Amino acid sequence: MRMPLFRGVKRWGKLISALLLSSLFLAACGENSPSVLNPAGPVADRERILFWFILIVATIVFVAVEGMLIYSIFRFRERPNSPMPRQIHGNNTIEVIWTVAPSIFLFAVLIGTIYTMINLAQPKTPADLEVRVVGHQWWWEFDYVSQGNFVTADSLEVPTGAVVQLDLVSNNVIHSFWIPQLTGKTDVIPGHNNHMWFTADRTGNFFGACAEYCGDQHAHMRFDVIAVDQNTFMTWVHTQQASAVTPAAGSLAEQGAKLFGSAAAGCSSCHGIVGNNLTSYADPKGAALIGPNLTHFGSRRLIAGGVLTWDPASCQIVNNQLVNKNNCGLYQWLQNPQAIKPGSDMVINQLTDAQITQLIAYLESLQ
Amino acid sequence: MVSETGDSLSNERKLVSKMNILKEVPGSHTSYWPFILAVALIIVLLSIMITSVIVFGVGVVLVVAAVIGWGLEKR
Amino acid sequence: MATRTIGEGVVVERQRRLSETYVGRWITTTDHKLIGIMYMVTAFFFFLVGGLEALLIRTQLAVPDGKVLDPATYDQIFTMHGTTMIFLFVMPMLTGLGNYVVPLMIGARDMAFPRLNAFGYWIVLFGGLFLTSSFLFGQAPNAGWFSYAPLTELTSACGNAVKCTPGLNMDFWVLGILLLGISSIAASVNFVVTILKLRAPGMSINRMPLFTWMTLVTSFLLLFAIPSLTAAAGLLLLDRHLGTHFYQQAFGGDPLLWQHLFWSFGHPEVYILILPAFGIISEVLPVFSRKPIFGYTFVAWSGVAIGFLSFTVWAHHMFAVGLPTVAQAFFATSTTLIAIPTAVKIFNWVATVYGGKLSLKAPMLFALGFIAMFLIGGLNGVALAVVPFDYQATDTYFVVSHLHYVLFGGTAFGVFSALYYWFPKMTGKLLSNRLGVWQFWLMLIGVNLTFFPMHILGLLGMPRRYYTYSGNLGWNELNLMATVGAFIIAAAILVFIWNVIVSLRSGEQSGSDPWDAFTLEWDTTSPPQPYNFATVPIVRSRRPFYDKKNPDIADWKTATH
Questions:
Q1: Chains touching chain C at 3 or more Cβ pairs under 8 angstroms?
Q2: C-alpha span between C47 and C39 (Å, rounded)
Q3: Contact criterion met (CB below 8 Å) for C465 and A37
Q4: Of C161, C325, C558, the CB nearest to A121
Q5: Checking phi first, is residue C499 left (phi over 0); if not, alpha (psi -120 to 50) or beta?
Q6: pLDDT tens per residue, range A287-314
Q7: ipTM more than 0.90?
Q8: pTM given for the model
Q9: How far apart are CA C394 and CA C4, in angstroms?
């Protein structure tokens, strides 16, 4: 029977659409999600405002048109004795109306679009911080151009309220640099000098990711943006500019330092540490190294483009042994990097647990 | 005309006879040149994949032959 | 060997020709109806292949840190999913439908170039098999269906890291695409000439059925868009094998050249994928509303407008690459403009339904579902035209949601509407309406459950083409929801396959005009005779068959055209 089916359908239809629409509001919640709708800076904020504007317009149009459609389906369903409908071929007046009306709506949107675009193209004040961002396969390198060219990877520390200018560089394939809560993305294209800017309005740790398919490990090319207050930032800068701490004589970390530079482990053939195998950040040997600079690895949080996190608490060493090695991300990485991130450049000889422990002790000391 | 092999027709030939007695159905003629040209083109492409000049040559010859055959076919 | 004598009781005999064996008939046919069926069956087969690839993707992404597919395999699967669905399902399916229906609709006996028609089909079959055979070598294309350079270059172009595409993978893609382009050009030329020259007497251009109109516009789009793709792919082939440097920055080339060339094809391509579906809807809605299409002229010419405008919007796929602000403003404007004719069409369809006498059979359900789903896809498309928002949403799951709403909720629903509508004409049997209703609801629910959460995933920061994701980013439930939805869609497709099997075997006889339709293809037997029409029909309005059945209230008596 047709009638009950449709009544039931109407009820379920309302329920399902309510569920689906309400799931949209989950977007605003998304507790630990890097949500575009939860901005922490003016660029992302303006982009978010445009989105809400669009959403409201789109919802009105959707309800109107879909509503008319559903109404028509129920109202004009064929019934046993319904007559043949009037054979209307069209109506020019209505056509004009519904061509002009959406055009007006759409042009209003377009004006908002172009206005915001022009506004966002350049910051209002000159840049306070300039960082050269290099996209590798598959990790991000940050060269703090305006703070003496020290180099770090995976973590971009910035002071709140500052205008940060990024120069985007790649010498391999196209990547895209995206921090959802701070700014929309800009592609990193070999041969092109793309720039972007953002400001972080509040402190926090913000998710960043590569957003242009760049090969097998595109999914593991994350980075962190860490916004701190100005004083903390300057302290951090001074620490980063300094060479690596020389480990105490006779310590496990010292053994790690030696292992780092040795041929047995081979670390120094790809990674640079200022104070170990590099004399300074400007050391020309550094430019030829294909891996991230590890001078202050200890103070970072991500390993290898975010495929694992570096958490000293889960890598505690007691009596020269890792307490719970399988909980320690850095152990897993050094033990078998190809299993964690297949296809990455980190192809190394098998290291023993003892060697890994020494390296972890050393890396932890590189604050 | 009676069949050469004897007086009873095989089933297959019976079928054909029936078809020919009916009026000839108007419509586009069948043709095998499109199929052959498609195969020839695939051979050319495959030759680029496996980088073989011989196969490429064979393919090109087939393409040319197919195009000529297509062109000369009665429509 | 054969002689023929005219007269009674004479027996003529000859060897059975190759073209008269069962297989031979299909290999040598130039009949547009048989070729259309071959196109559609092949396209459906590749739909299943692409669908399987989709299910693999969704299974891998159902939970965080999925281990179903390793990244190298995942890359091949998602690349082939896009490539298969676009080039081997949608395009051949729409070509096949057009092939079958358009000559009948315009009162012609066949297409203008029957052998070219057959050639176009065989190329699709061999090209598709060639492309898919790459899996057998474990080297399926793996750089995305859009194949951005320089990722698609061979190793030497890729900076220090050896991570371009060293194997044969992209060669399969490039050669497959070049081959399929030949087929599209052949089919387009055929359609343009057929539609412009072989219409029945009295069928002026503005009396053609709208499906024919849309097929005509689509064919012109193909003729102008495929050359861009051919150029792009050809240059890539040269870069890979003959030492040129078109896309290699280190030697003075530019990766963006690929993007401009590709999207100059890619944007008209998406209209190529949707316009015939617009045409299908414009045929089905009037018949099942028992009244003519509202605003025929506007629907037809908005299709033409979309065709022209589609060549002016390509860089809206490139808003994040760093084009100058003025250029971006231009493309934002053209993209906004193209939304207007699309909106006009939607309003006209709703006005067709309004005031009608709706028969909610399967073809109509899919057509109504099309309007509902395409509307969503159109609205989130307008969102993407808002450039600053696009900076956030591009290359995320928001775009995946958009493209699937328009291509699945749009084109695929249109395709199923067409299949339910014209199946009786092609086979003489009706598809089961009961199973059709089941399929419709499963698909509607499945599509929404799969793709609606993706809007949110995009807004929550999930980029595209990730083979896995961390469990601590709040993306888990939405991904699982999408996977469940994908399997519901799969169930719907199984229902359809079952429907076809059961209906072919013991479906209800349809007769020549099961839907009491309006256009000429229904004025033939089901299936039509090889020659289509015994006498060439004469046309006096846009609904010639309606006129024939209702001579007192015929359109040419009552309407002003």
A1: A, B
A2: 12
A3: no
A4: C325
A5: alpha
A6: 889 999 999 999 999 999 999 999 999 9
A7: yes
A8: 0.92
A9: 70
